[in-house]
Amino acid sequence: MQTKPHALVVMSRSSFEAHFDPGRFARLADLATLGEPCWTDDLDTPEVRKRLAQVEVLVTSWGAPQLTPARLAAAPALRAVLHCAGSVRGLVGDEVWRRGIRVTSAADVNAIPVAEYTLAAIIFAGKKAPFLATDEERAYRGWGPISGYGDLSNFGRTVGIIGFSRIGRRVVELLKVLGGTTCLVTDPHADPAEVARAGATLVPLDELLPRADVLSVHAPELPETRHLIGAAQLHLLPDHATVINTARGSLVDADALAAECAAGRLFAILDVTDPEPLPAASPLRRLAQVMITPHIAGSLGSEIGRLTDHVLQELARWAARRPLKAEITAESWALGLSA
């Protein structure tokens, strides 16, 4: 009989409560040996350090402390980190790979609601619905000609996708529900054939921007992607285009975007900002051409259970010594593809 691996859940209390209802916790207990404590948000207490000495698997999520070399040294038996959320950036580092510890995340599953949010944002952007809703002169006047917003349509539009990531790929596939939509992708690491199979065309950024009625950002956050979309890139977008960002706020130059939106030339739907939250003085908070949501595109509420189920399946595979399905390698981590 296969011996169950010793596991420790490491995340904030609120994350633990969101991930593990009684049924899912019972499933965890079936798959792994859980000692005392079975959960922690602090890896530095004497009690937890004693547990770490025998732990083979960490089940982590939001609120987990960074796995520093000192903490890893206290866990000589650790062989796997199974992350119940998306990005592991900030959680793991070079020492994890040096020790040969396997890492997986639920990023593929977390991509589902982000892509769904993005599709909804693209459809609303086509009709300029969020911006017309705040335009009292037009919102309550009823049907009639509307000027200053461009072509209010979702037919024959061009959507530009920055980053053929887990989320970007899903967005491309979801866009098939909009008949007549042209989808362009820019990503230096993407395979043109894979992009074509998903339903889009891979083009350079400077070719994509002038054609994009909607620009949706899905690139990883890296030093070289900071302000990937800056003043020069925004200037290339056609009048009345909408910028959608569900990736990281730093990818878009907030000041440059605010200037374009204040001029009435561009619109924006932002689920992430830089900084986050935006300071009260930020002009983006006051512009009718900008809709900001409080980082809600990712998994929330019942969607979190889907992340837990994914990691429990990974744990079952680990316990049975079967291949993991969502493993993150040192190479993909370095490229930001795990973010």
Count of distinct strands: 13
**CATH topology tier name of the largest domain:** Rossmann fold
In total, the number of domains comes to: 2
Say which CATH homologous superfamily of the largest domain is assigned: NAD(P)-binding Rossmann-like Domain
What can be said about the biggest beta sheet? 7 strands, parallel
CATH architecture heading of the largest domain:
3-Layer(aba) Sandwich
Provide the residue-averaged pLDDT. 93
- The neighbouring-strand order within the major sheet is 8-7-6-9-10-11-12
Beta-strand percent range: 15-25%
Structural account:
It is built from 15 helices and 13 strands. It is α/β, with parallel strands linked by helices. A seven-stranded parallel sheet has the order 8-7-6-9-10-11-12, with helices on both faces. Helix 2 runs parallel beside helix 14, helix 6 packs across helix 9 and helix 6 runs antiparallel to helix 14. The model has no long low-confidence stretch (mean pLDDT 93). It has two domains: 137 residues, NAD(P)-binding Rossmann-like Domain (Rossmann fold), CATH 3.40.50; 182 residues, NAD(P)-binding Rossmann-like Domain (Rossmann fold, 3-Layer(aba) Sandwich).
